[in-house]
Write a sequence for this structure.
DNA sequence: GTCTATAAACGGATAGAC
DNA sequence: GTCTATCCGTTTATAGAC
């Protein structure tokens, strides 16, 4: 599985190329030949190692998301142990949720990129490679964080807490996918654009403030535009 | 262009089918034959009416997003006229931004669905059919709202304002795309799931609170998970 | 495990009859 | 404007040599 040589073996090179190309173009728009071409291996190796194009996609996610059963809640466990029954502060919880639950485990495939578009893409692109085999650990982790958030913010209903976590996932996925349809980062030559830590630094006060806000559901909302 | 008959003409049926299938499967994963099959018309009609698959995609967005040059900022104009030089309250501005700038104009193509996954998909899917021909009016509208937000929230830098608008777009796109990888809406049988107005009602306090929050960029943020 | 060659189906686009 | 038949490149996947 591991070689002491200079070049990774064919299987790894295929995974690397597939990860990058699926990320850039999406699943359907990426052909097996593009992948093998980029990896410098014959086409047949994809089917030999992964069975099919979809099998390759699944292998890419499996590798990117980390080992199965890997505890994605261990950090939360630690926080709760330290708190000793007390509620954990919101900002700490938000940090933990962003860095631990939503963040990917595997680091820098290409060149120091810690954050992955891959997971962002997984949240949106339909078809094989997304919901179908998305690990259950993520949903379990989400539920653990839901409980923690509800302890910290007892003034919110469960629905409100879940909705707000849902919104957070949306923001993070959008940023992770690196999408910018409005061309905001171009138009305003935005600082921190593309820098995960910078983005998260901008994100945190926004999210924390949003999360602690009173629910306040108002009946009629939108004027006709 | 319009018939008094029962069935819409071929061109319209193609647009309807394409809108639905592009929305469900994405652009690359949807073939022209799938579309013409669903529409009950021969394949050749796509090229006759729209020139190419991409031309069809553009026509779909053109129809969904409303007429070109349609003023997407007219409501903001009205608000600013009423304010008479004064800053517009944040919640009003947020409402206007959500309902007017980001919302789609065309209603219920399929069956009473006002909100569109289509635009949500446009925000994420790579390749043709997304950023390439996304109308400039959207970006213009964003800039108008940026100016309004900066007047209302002078304690924020331009970067912070733009970032927060960016986050909002991310949330809305996620909700619009209807994606829910964590299966939150299933798991918790979430109230308001799928109901645009309900979602927006949940969204508003979250966004308003996040937007007015002090920037507070902190140097070191995330503990190792 | 790696490669060449090929199979079998599907992709978008078009020519030309009606 | 609508339809049939077809072209031609590309797709995934496989068979079989090395």
């Amino acid at each position: 599985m591991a070689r002491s040589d200079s070049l990774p073996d064919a299987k790894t090179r295929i995974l690397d190329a597939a990860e990058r190309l699926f990320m850039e173009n999406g699943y359907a728009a990426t052909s097996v030949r593009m992948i093998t071409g980029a990896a410098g291996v014959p086409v047949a190796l994809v089917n030999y190692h992964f069975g099919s194009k979809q099998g390759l996609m699944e292998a890419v996610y499996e590798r990117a998301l980390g080992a199965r059963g890997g505890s994605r809640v261990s950090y939360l466990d630690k926080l709760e142990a330290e708190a000793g029954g007390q509620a954990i502060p919101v900002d700490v919880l938000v940090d933990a949720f962003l860095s631990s639950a939503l963040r990917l485990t595997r680091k820098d495939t290409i060149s120091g990129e810690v954050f992955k578009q891959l997971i962002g893409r997984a949240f949106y692109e339909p078809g094989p490679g997304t919901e179908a085999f998305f690990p259950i650990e993520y949903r379990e982790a989400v539920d653990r964080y839901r409980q923690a958030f509800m302890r910290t913010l007892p003034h919110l209903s469960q629905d409100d807490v879940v909705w707000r976590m849902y919104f957070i996932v949306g923001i993070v996925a959008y940023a992770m996918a690196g999408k910018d349809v409005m061309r905001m980062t171009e138009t305003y030559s935005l600082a921190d654009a593309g820098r995960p830590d910078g983005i998260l630094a901008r994100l945190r006060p926004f999210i924390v403030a949003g999360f602690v806000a009173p629910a306040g559901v108002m009946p009629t909302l939108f004027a006709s535009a």
In short: Chain B touches chain A through 80 residues (CB under 8 Å).
